[in-house]
Write a structure and sequence with these properties.
By secondary structure, this protein is mainly alpha-helical. Helices cover about 65% and strands about 5% of the residues. The protein has 2 domains: about 1-30; about 30-80, no CATH class. The longest helix has 24 residues, at about 5-25.
C-alpha cells in the first residue's frame, strides 16, 4: 500500500469515529434507563430527582448531559443570563 493510501485509511477511521461520536451526542436523550423494578424509560421522561439519583448511582455520561441540558433550558426559559 502506498504512503498516501495508508494515510487515507487512518483519516477514514478518524472520520468514522467522529461521525459515531456525533451520532451518539445527538441521540443521547433516547437512551433508556432501567429502573429497579425492571421498567425501561427514556431519560428525557425521568423526573429530575430520579435523573439525579440515577447519575449519582451510575456516573453515566448521558445522564449528566441530560441534567445539563435541563438546567440550560430552564435558564433560557426563565430569562436569566
Amino acid at each position: 500500500m502506498s504512503d498516501w493510501a495508508s494515510e487515507f485509511v487512518g483519516d477514514a477511521a478518524i472520520a468514522e469515529r467522529i461521525w459515531e461520536e456525533r451520532e451518539a451526542r445527538a441521540n443521547f436523550r433516547t437512551e433508556l434507563w432501567t429502573t429497579k423494578d425492571g421498567r425501561a424509560i427514556p431519560i428525557r421522561d425521568m423526573e429530575d430527582s430520579h435523573l439525579f439519583n440515577a447519575y449519582r448511582h451510575s456516573q453515566k455520561n448521558y445522564l449528566f448531559r441530560e441534567m445539563v441540558l435541563r438546567l440550560f433550558e430552564a435558564r433560557i426559559e426563565g430569562g436569566r443570563p
